Amino acid sequence: MTQTPSSDFPAPASVVLPPDVAVVVPVKNEADNIFPLIREIHAALNGVVPFEIIYVDDGSDDETPARLDEAQREFPMLRVVRHANSCGQSQAVHSGVRAACAPWVATLDGDGQNDPADIPAMLAERDRQATANNVPLAMVMIAGHRQKRQDNGLRKLSSRVANGIRSSMLKDDTPDSGCGLKLFARATFLAFPRFDHMHRFLPALMRREGGVVLSVRVNHRPRERGVSKYGLWNRLWVGIVDLFGVWWLQRRARNPRVVRQDPGQTR
Q1: What range(s) does the Glycosyltransferase 2-like domain occupy (predicted)?
Q2: Is 242 exposed, middle or buried (CB count within 10 Å of its CB: 0-12, 13-18, 19+)?
Q3: Domain count of the chain?
Q4: What distance in Å separates the CA atoms of residue 19 and residue 21, rounded to the nearest whole number?
């Protein structure tokens, strides 16, 4: 005799796993890049790792807010943080990291020049580096090193000069600190000193905490839509004060070697 399933026991709902990684994308006036980049992020990570996407709209005055609202209907893992006014890229990244549920964060620039397809390899490299350097996983940062830069000559020159000055002062051994593609632990990032333009100095801040930074080669693409928000002056000169500030922080860092730590009492 064939029994029919009882309506008292409905089929279980599909299980939604908590995200392992949050892809944080700061944007300002990038309406035409919203859908293409989100679709690339989804294609790169879907079925690879549980993930969420967090866009931080830093006071856009174009169609960016409307495009993000549309994208949320197509991509349920997309969450949006919106600043009432523009606060800059570093604050936008910080707002996105703070809003994340996942323990790990991958950052991307919103102009489409970073390739989301590089993220899975960066996740794998993170695990290898933690084992090779015998450090806690949360103390590993993977930084992108852009290959065959698809920028104009002035932008390449300003980036080369800025990287050279920063590297000579901070000794962070990072050839391309300005690459927006990075992978790091959320909790570690939130413990960093917070200041404007800090996104340019994340490798140095990680090393200051005693962590490990590895630069890996990543793809770089030409900007196909929209207009760059950076020029020579705000890329090369505006961070000089911050550079000396990070140098000052490094010189005063102390990382004790803990030989004993009793467990805390529980009630």
Answers
A1: 23-186
A2: middle
A3: 1
A4: 6
Quote the CA–CA distance of 104 and 202 in Å, as a whole number: 15
**E strand or H helix at 51:** strand 51-58
**216 has which bridge partners?**
144
Confidence band for 1, pLDDT divided at 50, 70 and 90: very low
Euclidean distance between CA atoms 267 and 224, whole angstroms: 58
Walk across the sheet containing 182-185 and list its strands: 78-83, 51-58, 21-27, 104-107, 182-185, 140-146, 212-218
Residue 239 lies in a domain: yes
Q: How far apart are CA 157 and CA 154, in angstroms?
A: 5
258 lies in a domain?
no
The answer to the question of residue 15 being in a domain is no
Domain hosting residue 201, numbered range: 21-251
Residue 94 has φ and ψ, to the nearest 5°, of -60, -45
pLDDT tens for residues 5-43?
A: 444 545 445 556 899 999 999 999 999 999 999 999 999
Q: Please check whether residue 107 is in contact with residue 203, taking contact to mean a CB–CB distance below 8 angstroms.
A: no
Q: Give me the CATH number covering residue 128.
A: 3.90.550.10
Q: What tokens were used for 244?
A: 């000396």
| Helix orientation angle between 64-74 and 34-45, rounded to the nearest 10 degrees | 30
